[in-house]
């Protein structure tokens, strides 16, 4: 594995059992996250975004495949083996109100992390002072309980707690979706500061495509437990190839309300993960490009230029249609 790759996900599968059937939440994910990059994971609800993040963080075990951190296979690591990596791998959850113990002050919740990893009291105090200044909050918030603070304040504190140990990697799972739009901007500015001032690597999971384009270097588009397209943010947003990606991007709110809509409406609903289609996962909803092989053959990764990859049996035809 290249030294420039911090996280490598190799043929990862995660199946859950439900009513004696398997829910295929992830089904053969291959992905590399370069060191220092911000990678956005997008897709409809139920596509496996959050499950992928939790597998990478080793919060849940994978059914198959391997996850490498800085060249080390951590897939089978237990709690004791993962302790060293927990300091390097932090997480920001979606709901800031459930991120803190309601019975403890913010100070207690944050300092507990430092003490667990054997930081001295002086180091903890100094680092917290730096973090509070950085997230632009008053020190008084540290003595309060979570129910005394707003969602925006708590999410900023959650980010500060995640950064306390100077991690190498953060997995942010829908970190702004539970917040008001005005507050979202404050949180995104913090993430942009992180991106500018550090070599931190981040997996940024979101259904908000505008946010992902603003924050991330590259984008991975998921559908029903698989990857359908990936590339730099510029490649994905300026030149989407896969029909699902194009439909997803067309659902974004228009900058100009008077502009004629180019919305692509997909037929049908996303299939049940307990009964995924054979072959390409997307073919039942692909009205324009599907053909006889789509329901029986899995699409392979196809490079369409640069770091832009598409998973479709008819990639070349779609590129020709785009260029004509």
In short:
With 324 residues, this protein is an alpha/beta fold. The protein has helices at residues 49-56, 79-86, 106-116, 121-134, 151-163, 181-197, 209-215, 233-238, 243-250, 315-323, and strands at 5-18, 21-34, 38-42, 64-69, 72-73, 89-92, 169-173, 201-205, 218-223, 226-232, 301-305, 308-311. α3 crosses α4 (121-134) and α4 packs across α5.
Describe this protein with a few key phrases.
single chain, 324 residues, alpha/beta, Rossmann fold, eight-stranded mixed beta sheet, 12 strands, globular
Shape: globular
CATH fold-level topology of the domain at 5-86 and 218-233 and 244-253 and 261-323: Rossmann fold
| Proper CATH architecture of the domain at 5-86 and 218-233 and 244-253 and 261-323 | 3-Layer(aba) Sandwich
Through-space gap between termini: 39 Å
Annotated CATH homologous superfamily of the domain at 5-86 and 218-233 and 244-253 and 261-323: P-loop containing nucleotide triphosphate hydrolases
Largest sheet: 8 strands, mixed
């Amino acid at each position: 594995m290249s030294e420039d790759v911090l996280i490598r996900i190799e043929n990862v599968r995660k199946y859950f059992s439900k009513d004696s059937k398997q829910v295929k939440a992830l089904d053969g994910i291959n992905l590399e996250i370069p060191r220092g990059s911000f990678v956005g994971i997008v897709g409809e609800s139920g596509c496996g975004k959050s499950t992928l993040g939790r597998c990478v963080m080793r919060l849940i075990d994978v059914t198959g495949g391997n996850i490498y951190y800085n060249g080390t296979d951590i897939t089978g690591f237990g709690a004791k083996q993962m302790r060293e990596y927990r300091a390097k791998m932090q997480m920001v959850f979606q709901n800031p109100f459930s991120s803190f113990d309601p019975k403890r002050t913010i100070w207690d919740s944050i300092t507990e992390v430092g003490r667990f990893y054997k930081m001295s009291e002086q180091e903890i105090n100094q680092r917290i002072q730096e973090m509070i200044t950085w997230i632009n909050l008053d020190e008084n918030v540290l003595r309060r309980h979570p129910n005394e603070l707003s969602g925006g304040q708590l999410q900023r504190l959650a980010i500060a707690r995640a950064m306390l140990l100077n991690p190498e990697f953060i997995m942010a799972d829908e970190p702004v979706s539970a917040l008001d739009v005005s507050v979202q901007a404050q949180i995104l500015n913090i993430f942009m500061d992180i991106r500018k001032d550090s070599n931190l690597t981040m997996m940024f999971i979101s259904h908000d495509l505008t946010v992902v384009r603003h924050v991330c270097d590259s984008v991975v588009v998921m559908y029903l437990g698989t990857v359908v397209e990936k590339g730099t943010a510029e490649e994905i947003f300026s030149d989407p190839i896969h029909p699902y990606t194009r439909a997803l991007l067309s659902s974004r709110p228009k900058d100009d309300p008077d502009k004629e809509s180019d919305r692509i409406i997909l037929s049908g609903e996303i299939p049940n993960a307990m009964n995924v289609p054979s072959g390409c996962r997307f073919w039942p909803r692909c009205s324009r490009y599907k053909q006889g092989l789509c329901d029986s053959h899995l699409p392979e990764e196809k490079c369409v230029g640069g770091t832009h990859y598409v998973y479709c049996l008819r990639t070349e035809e779609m590129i020709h249609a785009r260029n004509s």
